[in-house]
Amino acid sequence: MKTKVENLEGFNKKLTIELDASEVDDRINKQYKDFAYRYNFPGFRKGKAPRAIVDSALGAQAVVATVTDDILSKVTPLAVDENNLVPISQVQFEESEALVEQGKPFSYSITVETRPEFELTDYKPISVLLPSTEATEDEVQAQIDEMLNYYYDFEDASAATKIKEDSFIEIALKATDEKGEELESMSSESRVYEVGMGLFPEEFDQALIGKKKGDKVSVTIGPDSPSMLTQNVAPEAGDITFEVEVKQVKKRIVPELTDEWVKEKAGFESIADLRERMAEQIKMQKESMAPRLRENEALFELQGRLKGEAPEVMLEGQERELLQSFFGQLQQSGMSFDMFLAQNGMTPETFTEDLKRQAADVVAQDLALDAWARNAKFEVTDEEISAEFANSGAEDPAALEKEWREAGRIAALRQGMLRGKAIDDILEKLDVKELKEGEKLKSVVAREAAQEAAKKEAEKQAKKAEKDAKKDEKDAASGNKKATKKAAPKKKADNDKKED
Asked: What are the tens digits of pLDDT across the range 187-208?
């Protein structure tokens, strides 16, 4: 097989593939034998039918058409892989009706859209700001407060106390479906509930705010209102009606931190011992997260150096991958998409925007790593590729490698391994400075800014849509008035005619 690569406009390359006459003849001979064994030809034993009989029975071009299709489908990925091309979209075949011919070479051309080879603004070692792995006093105190909250107790508030967003209340609850049948799994004679925790839909909580001991409310929730409790209710239940009686508004009492309490409840010798152990635990957690944090911040800085914009097809492909991974994890967790949005305070629009930002970051980082690897002249040998399969845990690494090579997937694997070498090199040379207390990671600041900008844009679009809707209503009303005014004289004329 001979191949030739030509650069076209943009990120496209033309790949011309040629098989010599002997290769074509071998494939044609093999195909005749395959058909002779596969089909029954009267008067001939299996595999013994001559070519003329095969052509007569299956058609004069059956063999050469099959061989041509086989070359296009199986040789193409090998040729693409051999030239170390990684397509970012489907390869395009040049239009041709040519079929292979006995004794003649066969060639064809395809267009491959490949990953762009952008450069970086510079290739100097990267500097990042990272938080200290030591525990701060605020972090230790936050852990202690969380522990104390775990041991809280309740006492009754006064009967006049009104329910607020974060109130704890004791309620009696009866839930019925659209047919009036009780839903026992959600009904209870006495349940302590924290308003606003998301266990019930938001409409449920809003109906309770401002109420006090002895008040009763009835609220109907539609199936499109997600919550932790209602997401597992069968769709045929339809609207769910909750009859709620407020039995008591509660006060949450957090225990006082003393040496005696610490020793009795938490098993530490003293408050000082507790704080020391908490600090050690926080430090261990930070140290375990530090490598991933180093890599994330290094990649964030690296993508800022990229010169060029990724093609839309790459962004769309990455979005699909992220979305597929997300819904796979969501399915494993048993949570619905609506429930996920509700818990994270997101709308479908903000979720989509967040997904697009993540995809753009991943693609930019990959392209930046490609540039770093090219500049450093890193290479991946065949021995390293075989070692990658040997370390994959596959039952038969050699067979798996053969399968990947025949499918034309080695170039993509090589590219991934080159990125691995690039990130290792970057982290080895990384210049790390410590964040000041109260400062945020650059990647966090950028993400929050992007989210805020997206939120403002969404609000702007919502206001515009509302304004346009009101204008449409006004125009429609104005149009109706004009139509009425135009019709009025005609009516009067008709009446005059009747009087005559």
From this structure: 899 999 899 887 888 888 899 9
